[in-house]
Write a structure and sequence with these properties.
Blueprint: E1 2-7, E2 9-10, E3 13-14, H1 16-31, E4 35-41, E5 56-60, H2 70-83, E6 86-92, H3 95-108, E7 111-116, E8 122-123, E9 126-132, E10 137-143, E11 148-152, E12 167-171, E13 199-203, H4 213-223, E14 226-229, H5 231-235, E15 256-260, H6 266-269, E16 277-282, E17 295-298, H7 301-314
Parallel strand pairs: 1-4, 1-6, 4-5, 5-12, 6-11, 7-11, 13-14, 13-15, 15-16, 16-17
Antiparallel strand pairs: 2-3, 8-9, 9-10
Helix pairs in contact: 2-3, 4-7
Bound molecules: flavin-adenine dinucleotide.
Flavin-adenine dinucleotide binds next to helix 5, helix 6, strand 16 and helix 7.
Length: 315
Amino acid sequence: MSVLVFADSTDGKFKKTSFEVVSYGKKVAEQVASNLVVLTINANDASELYKYGAAKVIAITNDALLTFNAKEYAAVIVAIAQKENATIVVMDSSINGLYVSPMVAVSLDAGYASNTVALPSSTDPFTVKRKAFSNKAFSNTIISSEKKVIALAKNSFGIHENPVAGILENFDVQVAASGVVSEKVERVTGKVTIADADTVVSAGRGMKGPENWGMIEELASVLGAATACSKPVSDLGWRPHGEHVGQTGKPVASNLYIAIGISGAIQHLAGINASKVKVVINSDPEAPFFKAADYGVVGDAFEVIPTLIEKLKAF
Ligand code: FAD
């Protein structure tokens, strides 16, 4: 029996969440007294995962899997889960993870828990804590099936080093043509993607128009952050739709989320609840966002942002 973790990568590089899911899988494997096996697809250096406790890594290198395709990735994960007799499969709750993980669960006839935030509180019955109601509440979910698929929420468990002398198994798979042609569209407006960013600088209608986004991009660049926006901003065409954050947009689970000229509507907050520290800059002291903020600056963004950039550059 084993616990299988899928460690996703982009252009051959592991995402931070991959180190987190491996750290998590290691602990789950200890809890259920099973071996940990980690699967990678087209990763440049699969042995990087030894540092997080991956004693056995199955590395697949296959040109047919260079572009993400949920059906094909799910088929590969299922094949390796069966080969390794995995009773628990763990992956991340990124957009790709949330696309693939239910498919894997259906194929394995497994119980499924997405957006899991902690180690199982009990292994009998197998109980995991998950985010619920747009991250406003938690639920304890019992998975009673023999096989289980868990999608771990980003930044919920953390990255824990646990170096082991790992074994690398290079494995080959036949990838059936799915007939799906997908094009990879990476919308990176700053230097960092929203999903992987530690810091996100997000702006709303308070910025008045697209011509004022230069200062948002400059602030993001100084902080090494990704840029994001509220829904109306992308609806108005001021920013690309890929940057829209919230209930109907991208979820953000960054360490720092800076919201500039965003009122803090419930639909926006639903997408950023998982971010750790929220800083709000708004000229209206009554803006609802201040209630959800860890730090707030009441002020005009057109004065505050240039000052902030200047201070950060001098720092
Ligand atoms: P506004 O509400 O217009 O707020 C602008 C803010 O800027 C104000 O607080 C104002 O005080 C401040 N401001 C103005 N000038 C300045 C200045 N010079 N300096 C500093 N601050 C200033 N919204 C999302 O963002 N994401 C979603 O996923 C989403 N999904 C939705 C789904 C549904 C079904 C519905 C009905 C709505 C959804 N919305 C979503 C829209 C949401 O309800 C709000 O309308 C939207 O978030 C408001 O965007 P905003 O804060 O940029 O604009």
